[in-house]
Amino acid sequence: MSVVELKDVSKSYGSFAALRDINLQVHAGSVTCILGDNGAGKSTLIKVLSGLHPASSGEVLIDGVPTVLSGPRDALNHGIATVYQDLAVVGQMSVWRNFFLGQELTGAFGRLKTDEMKHITQDQLSAMGIDLPDVNVDVNSLSGGQRQVVAIARAIYFGARVLVLDEPTAALGVKQSGMVLRFVAAARDRGIGVVLITHNPHHAYLVGDHFTILKLGRQIVNVPRDQVTLEQLTQHMAGGSELEALSHELRG
């Protein structure tokens, strides 16, 4: 059974149909890649999965049960955590403070359990392959890839069963993108269901188990890995038929 499933989900804003009849299954220990260009509907899909905006029609099922998510906190309570491209981290605060931001461990009289939180942060990052010599450093001192990893590790530690990652490699170079993609694979190997939103078919194909391509709010591709090649994904993303027509026009 899928952890999260969308059945014929549509989302409209007034007369504008942002999503139309989307079907999607997210399984534990699997990476589902959602690809599409700007305006394809990726952001709207994130909002539906994260509970930010309810679907206009169709069903969202969690563990097979039709569920109406009332907001991001409700989604988190169901184990769905979204890590946005503009990370919800405070740059001037330490890594460990960011890791426990809003969910601090406290003891008697509300005193922070600082040493315990530092130890947990270090252990969780190490377990996912990130070796930070000092979790006291400000998040601003980390690379873009490391910041992404801190946000993802935090979500997993606080009980995420499904991770929705919004373009995590969009602003990163090759090395930092590789760090994040290894972390995505590690999350999958720990049994997390990952939804990877991206416009980069090469990154998607490195870690993906299932691929959906959106175009103007519709699914134009929805296939498991063994039914599609990287070249086919790239061609769909690039608008193969449109490019071919343009090529004839420009050469003609």
From TrEMBL:
InterPro entries membership: AAA+_ATPase (IPR003593), ABC_carbohydrate_import_ATPase (IPR050107), ABC_transporter-like_ATP-bd (IPR003439), ABC_transporter-like_CS (IPR017871), P-loop_NTPase (IPR027417)
Coiled-coil ranges per UniProt: none
Protein keywords: ATP-binding, Nucleotide-binding, Sugar transport, Transport
GO MF annotation list: ATP binding
Superkingdom as given in the UniProt entry: Bacteria
ABC transporter domain span: 4-241
Gene3D superfamilies listed in its UniProt record: P-loop containing nucleotide triphosphate hydrolases
Pfam families to which the protein is assigned, alphabetical: ABC_tran (PF00005)
PANTHER family: CARBOHYDRATE TRANSPORT ATP-BINDING PROTEIN MG119-RELATED, SUGAR ABC TRANSPORTER ATP-BINDING PROTEIN
Protein name: Simple sugar transport system ATP-binding protein
Species of provenance: Corynebacterium felinum
